Amino acid sequence: MAPVQPRVTLYGKPGCHLCEDARETVAAVCAELGVEWTEVDITTDEALFRRFGEQIPVTFVDGDQHDFWRVDAARLRSALTAAG
């Protein structure tokens, strides 16, 4: 069986208070819905740091950019439960 791919990816960096808030929201919504998620530290990848450095935290849902700076729980829940 192939490993489950996370539906939500959170890009951020250590010491970022907005990233900490986003992590709590993403973790809570994903736990509620039984959805896998992952977090990527942009400081470990120069290309990601250049791409997202001024927008973190950045969330992606199913590979598409969803939000940046703040994560709205209702909007994330809606994106994860939308038929598609």
Can you walk through the features of this model?
By secondary structure, the chain is α+β, with helices and mostly antiparallel strands. Helices cover 39% and strands 23% of the residues. The protein contains three helices and four strands, in the order βαβαββα. It has helices at residues 17-33, 46-52, 73-81, and strands at residues 8-12, 37-41, 58-61, 64-68. It has a four-stranded mixed beta sheet, with helices on one face. Helix 1 (17-33) runs parallel beside helix 3 (73-81). The mean pLDDT is 93.
Summed up, what is this model?
The protein is of the alpha+beta class and 84 residues long.
Q: What's the helix count? A: 3
Strand order of the largest sheet: 2-1-3-4
Helix amount: 25-40%
Please tally the β strands and state the result.
4
**Residue fraction in strands:** 15-25%
Order of helices and strands: EHEHEEH
Which runs of at least 5 residues are low in confidence (pLDDT < 50)? none
* Rg from Cα: 12 Å
Q: Residue-averaged pLDDT, rounded?
A: 93
General form:
globular
Major sheet summary line: 4 strands, mixed
Structural category: alpha+beta
N-to-C span: 23 Å
